[in-house]
Write a structure and sequence with these properties.
transmembrane; EamA_dom
Length: 298
Amino acid sequence: MEKRSSKLKGMILAILGGVFWGVSGVVAEYLMTTKHVSASWLVAVKMIVAGFLILMYQMGKGNKDSLSPLKNKTELIQLIIFSVLGVLGLQYSFFKAIQVSNAATATILQYLSPILLVVYFIIEKKELPNKLSVVSIVLSLLGTFLLVTKGNLNELAISPNGLFWGLLSAFFGAFYIIQPRKLMAKYGTTLIIGWGMLIGGMSFQVYQPIWQDVPTFTPGVLLGILVIVIIGTVFSYICLLKSTEYIPPQFSSLLTSFEPLSSALFSVLFLGLVLKPIEIVSMLLIIFAVFLLSRCDV
């Protein structure tokens, strides 16, 4: 009973991580297309502000280990690797893939990360996943593919450059979940994400200083940035990585397929998007994949 409860908690956290990320995607699209906010500036600001807020929260509640990851040389190196490759690498490569191809292609390629994670754990554990897990992964990937392409292959525009950045985002997505496990086991998920965001955001200043390409601040822009920072970054990242304490990382990654699903739903509610039958079918496939996953012995 306790195992099932922990599994359910992990699944809910992973799904929430995907939903929160989906919310931020809709808001980011609004800011970039309507308010002309630079994608690079948005990435830089949200990482620095989110990291700062998380660390202030940790220190405010009396976490005596807040600075500890910086004091051990080996752990500091691991933290920097996570910050630059895991956090910043995932953020930048995904936005770059969108820039040089399109959002549909970038999303499809990024959602290869669950497959990379499954392969990694097959090698690590030297055992194959059960059949139900494989079916769940296939249905989830198929649902994601149909949702972002609307069943039209012409929606995919894969140039060599787009393929490179898209596959890189998939790699960094898998790396982001695998690499910091030891640090998080020792210091906690929230603290490591806080430092990861802040260090990654500060590193990005070499490319995109936050004082350049500053948008015109209106109440709508400020609210949008706040939603992206708090819901789409702080809550999303914490939920996803916290879920790996209860379910295997490859399944946490699979459950983030709720991101394109939630993006579509929020686009219907707030941006006036009209869903086609193929998109409804794709959503049902994703939901069914999650149901099957809930039946797996993980």
